[in-house]
Amino acid sequence: MLNICQETQVLLSRQFQQKTLAHAILLQGIEGTGKPALAKWLIELLICKYPISFISDLPDHAEISQACNQCKSCLLRKSGSYPDHLLLSSDNKTLGVDDIRRGNSFLEKTAHLGQIKTILIPQAQTMTVAAANALLKTLEEPSQNSFIVLLSEDLDSLLPTIVSRCAIYTIRPVVGEALLLKLKSSGFSEHSLPQNRAAMPRKLDSSFVNLSQLAELTDAATFQAFEEFNQRYLDYLTTGQSEPQLLIQLIENKHGLRWLEKITCNLVRQHYLTNGPDSSNSLATHQDGLGKNEISELVISPEVLNQIYQAIISSNKLIKSFTQANRQFVAEQLLMTINTIVRPST
Questions:
Q1: What is the b/e burial string over 57-80, where b = at least 16 CB atoms within 10 angstroms of the residue's CB?
Q2: pLDDT (mean) for 43-59
Q3: Last residue of a domain, one of 154, 170, 186
Q4: Is residue 175 part of a domain?
Q5: Most Cβ neighbours (<10 Å): which of 62, 66, 88, 118?
């Protein structure tokens, strides 16, 4: 997916060549925008002794620097034995203060090869508050010739003090038909897309497709799970049924909350596309393609759907803001809130 990031590569390449690259670099964007590949390219470039350049595919044919892959540092990096780079990740759900202290200690030591030392934090949003505060001192007083690259899907999940001390590069995804063309040019074939893609336009209209939906677009199992989730959510809205199954998917599937938000937005969009922007009528719609010719009819006002959407956003923000938040508790409370909004008298 690096072809999506070429503009950022050009910018970082110029800064690298001019020796103006920031000490702390934060790459942020939704999953699927190519952040890990971009970080890997940048780390390799920083490590390399004899970088080379190539011409980008951009209209101005700007140059992009890259590692030579032949010098001693590159060979050690490829063999996994380069001593002056540290990957800061954790097997736990959070990145703790001890992990960050290990990184701080690593930067304080003299480089074994050359002068550059690099750290990559691929899940910066999982840092605990104590860990973020431990990193803050290093960001404020960086050691010479050291670089820290952080990746995050959401700036709101990071402490503002961390964000303010990083050079931020937002990887903005292409959308709609342009995205589908990008997928094909990146090697995705029609055979890699869900077999029942004929049903996809009703749920993933290409006018609104973006990279947050990459999993549904390129993986048949994920698309099937989305269809099942869609049906269960509509069942829950209309009849109050399917709550146990819906709850399990919200807890266990990392896409659950996003799907909940997406489906709710689609219901509101369908209402206004059908009735016009000034309509205040109740929403009456049906979702087909959800199984064996099943049809689920929903009659609900867009105002109620908006209340549901706000509840989903609040729950999503809670989980993102607190890395140790109990996902099951948040999901249970969200479903209770949705039920109360739809059926206030029950």
A1: eeeeebbbbbbeeebebbebbeee
A2: 90
A3: 170
A4: no
A5: 118
Task: List the domain range (segments joined by +) for residue 283.
Answer: 194-342
Judge whether 177 lies within some domain: no
Helix (H, G, I), strand (E, B) or coil at 305: helix
Answer whether residue 178 is part of any domain: no
Number of structural domains (the chain) is: 2
β-strands 117-121, 146-152: how paired?
Answer: parallel
pTM beyond 0.70: the answer is no
Q: What does the CA dihedral 256, 254, 129, 119 come to, rounded to 10 degrees?
A: -150
Burial class (CB within 10 angstroms; exposed 0-12, middle 13-18, buried 19+) of 182:
middle
CATH value at residue 137: 3.40.50.300
Q: Which residues contact 161 (CB under 8 A, 6 or more apart)?
A: 132, 136
**What count of other Cβ atoms lies within 10 Å of the Cβ of residue 244?**
9
Residue 29 lies in a domain: yes
Helix or strand run (H / E) with residue 218:
helix 214-218
d(CA 263, CA 229): 10
pLDDT tens readout for residues 276-308: 555 555 544 444 333 333 334 446 788 888 899
